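In this supplementary section we document a worked example of the pipeline. Step one takes a protein sequence of length 366 as its only input; no multiple sequence alignment statistics are reported here. Step two produces a three-dimensional model, which step three serialises into structure tokens for compact storage. The input and output of this example are shown verbatim.
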Amino acid sequence: MNSWRSLVVIACVLVLSSVALGNIGAVTRGFVVTAFAPAAYEGDYQCPAGFAEGPDTKAILGKLPQAERERLLRPEHSAELMLTVRQALEDSHVIFKTVKGKRAYGLNLDRSEGETARLNSCAHEDFVGPSGERGIDNQWYRAIGCMQESRPGGALHEYFNTSMRKGDFAILIEIDGIDDPLDDAEVRVGFYRAADPLANAGQTAGGNVRMQVHYDNYFHSVARGRIVKGTLITEPVDMRFKATPRMRELVIRDARVQMEFQRGGQLKGILGGYQELQVLHAAAREALRAETTFGPLTCRCFSPTLASLADGYPDPKQDGPCGWISVAYEVEAMPATVIHSAVERRPTTKQVDESESWWRKLLWWR
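The serialised model returned by step three reads:
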């Protein structure tokens, strides 16, 4: 009889231990984003009319007196030079060239393939993904995809990457509750602004990067997710990051990711969502500020063209216009130790620690 009681007691202890610990096998993995650039599809003939071109500044200035040319070319007069070029283009009837191809990288943000009602979206033409995925929304690519500057290596394509390399900002990703790295029905995914990227990018003895989460919860976003055949997929969530010094913040509305775990431990894939039209326009101008007249953006037709392509969140008082535009970023992230401060939410599962044996986990109360 005593032996039966002992077995019952042991069983109860095991049950209580599992309840208190949760799933012992669940782990948390952290990452720091190392690449963040607009997804540019180059597989098909996307720009049949050629690339969007900036004005022939040299020809325009050639019509002015030499003294005026020299004055406008001084750095302190760059704004006046841009206005001079714009005035010369007013009667040229320039048409801003956009993507005409049918394929693009991105995600189905409005949950429609063009045949059903769209969610929080204005009417627009969908893209088809490289593997035949229907309903792809990436209107920002449609707008800038025929600019040389938006291609890999161009100033607009590398805008955020350049800022990250300077240490202006960093994005952290934390996946909590991983039971199976290949297929897991539910995980918790945090997206965080890093605190002082340059000061907190220290490395452990094993070479793992340690990154501190910014204390302000305003820059914390946590989404429900799942892992399907090694691909992380998250539900929509609004993300906010402090990006370049000239930008107040980087807001991506209804953001979600579809990223694959790589053999080397990295994450790689697409982050999609909606960004405010005016903010993106300003970011594009900032990215091309090094060019004397902002290249193709000097054309006054760019602003109305961009507005006509906006597809996210129409004016609630009427059916449009939309003030947000769908975007897709190619994102790469490397493993990192994500450190939370004492005032923050702590992870609900443990970081991977192979040195902690199973029996020590079982005897947690000791």
